[in-house]
Amino acid sequence: MAEKLKIISLGGLNEIGKNLTVYEYGNDIVVVDCGMGFPDDDMYGIDVVIPDVSYLIKNQSKIRGIFITHGHEDHIGAIPYVLRSINAPIYATRMSAGLIQLKLEEHHLVSKTKMITCEAGDVIQAGKFSIEFIHVNHSIADAVAFAIKCPVGTIVHTGDFKIDTTPIQGGMIDLARFGALGQEGVLALLADSTNVERPGYTRSESSVGNSFDALFKGCQDRIIVTTFASNVDRLQQIINVAARYGRKVAVTGRSMGHRPVHGERHEGVHRAGLYEDPRRGAHGPDPDQVPAQA
Ligand SMILES: [Zn+2]
User: Fold this and answer.
1) Is the pLDDT of residue 281 over 70?
2) pLDDT band (50, 70, 90) for residue 109
């Protein structure tokens, strides 16, 4: 007799944050996402809320891997805490893997953790499961959905997504692949539901660039832009429009300072002579600057 497939949510259902879903078939478990939640007003002195993973600790030997849809905190934030109790390889795309790597370094877990960098189209065998990475659009680069196959059928787990026909980079969500899976037959669709009750659609990230352009165009004074540090596409758009209008860019904020602005893009800003240290000078920053705050 065939085994039963169990789908267990340890967080992320009926709440924002703390996303962690367990798929169990026979002797195999795969985990999708490992996010943190944010404390409620009455949780005095609590900085981080993490899912209760006692079920995973009890079934440690079955865990074949932790698969990450994207690098937002509510999908990766609990990783360093959960890894203290369970040890499992982590499969993630390049952007997510980079952000997880920073957490592992901060918590001295690099040498103990096996990280495997994947890309859309990859199929990973994990016990009796196979997990396919499918490209989706989201407000962070390199987001994926998963087609999770096991002997009783296929589950599609979308993670957070939007349908952006003109994304800044990475191409449009792979609707053709979702269509093909639909043709093959899907046992269950687990889809992100934030804003699902709001009619209409989310505007393309590209449309934000036009708004920036209009705002920067007539402005003589300093411009302050706030955004999530992980929204690299939006940072890129801010930098592009700053370059267009001869502005300098200063970046400040805990996550901004040493996360996505690092690396290639940071170098690009330096090379273009756009970057200003926000702490520069006794008289404060230059009024031509565009500080980006997170
Ligand atoms: Zn997200």
Assistant:
1) no
2) very high
CATH H superfamily, domain 5-191: Ribonuclease Z/Hydroxyacylglutathione hydrolase-like (3.60.15.10)
**Which among 39, 32, 96 is positioned nearest to 65, based on CA atoms?**
32
The type of residue at 157 is H
Centroid of ligand 1 to alpha carbon of 157 (angstroms): 14
pLDDT given for residue 218 in this prediction: 85
Domain regions of the chain by residue span? 5-191, 205-293
What's the gap in Å between 249 CA and the centre of ligand 1? 26
Are 136 and 174 a contacting pair, CB within 8 Å?
Answer: yes
Encoded tokens for 24: 């169990």
**Summary mean pLDDT of the chain:** 87
Q: Give the rounded percent of residues in the chain with a pLDDT score beyond 70.
A: 86
Distance 74 CA to ligand 1 centre (A): 7
Separation of CA 236 and ligand 1 centre (Å)? 18
Superfamily of domain 205-293: Metallo-hydrolase/oxidoreductase (3.40.50.10710)
Ligand 1 geometric centre to CA of 227 (Å): 14
CA of 288 to the centre of ligand 1 (A): 33
pLDDT digits (tens, 9 = 90+) for 212-225: 999 999 888 999 99
**Residues flanking ion ligand 1, Cβ below 5 Å:** 72, 160
Tokens 């957070």 belong to residue: 160
How many Cβ atoms from other residues are within 10 Å of residue 47's Cβ? 8
DSSP 121: T
Task: Look at the pTM and tell me if it is higher than 0.70.
Answer: yes
Q: Is the pLDDT of residue 259 over 70?
A: no
- Residue 26 Cα, ligand 1 centroid: separation in angstroms? 30
Q: How far is the CA of 139 from the centre of ligand 1 (A)?
A: 7
pLDDT value at residue 283: 46
Q: How far apart are the first and last CA of the chain?
A: 54
